Predict the 3D structure of the following.
Amino acid sequence: MKDQPITVEDYKEHSQEFFDKYFYVAKELGEGAKAEDILKIMESLAGVIMKKRSETKVGPFGFNKKTSEESEEE
């Protein structure tokens, strides 16, 4: 599926999520914002979000998870 061309149906299925984010950023930047600037901000925000998510990762969970001490002993 990864190597198949993107279809119009794919656009229809995923466009709402994209445009919600796009128009949110456009509104924050103001009336004169250019598409290029909006897309750059969206990319930057995605990076910030991913960094914050990795910092707040909680775990490990489950009975078979090893602590860092146990992993070093092996």
Remarks:
- The helical segments are 8-29, 35-55, 68-73.
- The longest helix spans residues 8-29.
